[in-house]
Specification:
With 179 residues, this protein is an alpha+beta fold. Helices cover 20% and strands 36% of the residues. It has a 4-stranded antiparallel beta sheet with strand order 11-12-7-13, with helices on one face. A hairpin with a 4-residue loop joins strand 3 and strand 4. The longest helix has 22 residues. The radius of gyration is 21 Å and the shape is elongated. The mean pLDDT is 93.
Length: 179
């Protein structure tokens, strides 16, 4: 049995779970998230914890078992404390400015500023002109928005200029050798 899938998901105080036939809704202090469950997987609400179960040991069911448990655990963590991704901007003249909590203006060396609007449930913070924090309760959406911002100007290998995740190591190449 899957080590990840068989672990129960503890429900902290203030989190309520509604399990319907093929859908699961998790509500907490930060908000509410919903997800549909894959057909062979079932979720049992057992007091202050959730149990994810599979019908048999088929390969596809084993894969869905651990995946579903991880997704539900991320939903519970999201509605209690939320998720965040931090981005660094490296380059002379490269900077970010916040235009409200749901809009971001980036100067990344293009002839025009790039404006990024946040989807529902996502907020931006700019603690410094070269740092951007993406926050939200849905881990998947936070990661996708951060990846989309990074994709605008990914770090280049010669000088390292561009947008990168905080702590990301960019492998640098040697430039042209002088003769």
């Amino acid at each position: 049995m899957s080590r990840i899938g068989r672990a129960p998901i503890p429900l902290p105080a203030g989190v309520s779970v509604d399990v319907d036939d093929r859908s699961l809704t998790v509500s907490g202090p930060q908000g509410s998230l919903a997800r549909s469950l894959p057909p062979p997987i079932t979720v049992v609400h057992d007091g202050d914890r959730l149990l994810v179960q599979r019908p048999d040991d088929q390969r596809s069911n084993r894969a869905l078992h651990g995946l579903t448990r991880s997704l539900i655990a991320n939903m519970v963590a999201g509605v209690t404390q939320g998720f965040s991704k931090e981005l660094e901007i490296v380059g002379v003249g490269y900077r970010a400015t916040a235009r409200g909590p749901s809009s971001l203006e980036l100067a990344l060396g293009f002839s025009h500023p790039v404006v990024v609007d946040a989807p529902d449930g996502i907020t931006f913070e700019v603690p410094a002109p070269t740092r951007v924090v993406v926050r939200g309760i849905d881990k998947e959406k936070v990661g996708q928005v951060a990846a989309n911002i990074r994709k605008i100007r990914p770090p280049e290998p010669y000088k390292g200029k561009g947008v990168r995740y905080a702590g990301e190591r960019v492998i640098r190449k040697a430039g042209k050798a002088a003769k």
